[in-house]
Amino acid sequence: MPGSLFATSDLHGSFSENKRIIDEMHPESSDDWLIVAGDVDDTFSKIEKTLSLLRRRYAKVIWTPGNHDLWTLRDDPVQLKGVARYQALVQMCRDNDILTPEDKYAIWQDQSGPVTIVPLFLLYDHSWLAPGTTTKKESLAYAHETGVVCADEVLLHPAPYPDRESWCSARLEDAERRLLALGPEVTTILVGHWPLIRQPTQALRFPEFAQWCGTTRTADWHVRFRASAVVYGHLHIPRTAYYDGVRFEEVSIGYPREWSRRSKPPMPRKVLPA
User: Fold this and answer.
1) In whole angstroms, what is the distance from residue 274 CA to residue 264 CA?
2) Chain centroid offset of residue 271 CA
3) pTM for this structure?
């Protein structure tokens, strides 16, 4: 049978329940590809162990980092931070024949024609303000007052950039340059850990958390760069939705306390054929 393109994210393999889900992930065909949209695990060696396992099973694996992948935990033997940690993860993926946002884009031969798969590493810039606030400073202060603060504030270091907002800006500029170079006839699948548009965050239990989820600067990318689908995670709210006629797939597994309330454990979502 012809292969399919699957996607998953937020594997959080440190949880034994999630580790069992990872162990059960197998392709339906030897030609299947798998997108892994970030948050594989919290330490370098565990990230490599999971990604290399999936690469041995799937014909191609495409990874883009999530915030947990970029954390520098005190008990992680790999104490690299910021850009240096990301670059080390990219090299680890290349050593395991896994594609990253730094590599040449893979092209999926769909029934309707070729589709370019674009893994994006963009971060966030706190521009999705908390409700009722008007500035980033006010929005962050409100989050601290309510206690809804992302652990990135302590664990995700931006070095050598002065802050994550500056790192995000540099990532956006690089991704936009590469996307523009594709040409107006290229159909894409845009893949990133953080959602490109704010609308999916409206389902968050704590809306002030949205400021760690994306940036206003990508609000039109799904239309501007001709996406047939957008794949993301981070929110732990798996769903299929359509915005401006474009299919958005939130493909996260999430934490056991979240997915255990559903009828069955989440497995990779088929993206193509649609």
Assistant:
1) 22
2) 15
3) 0.96
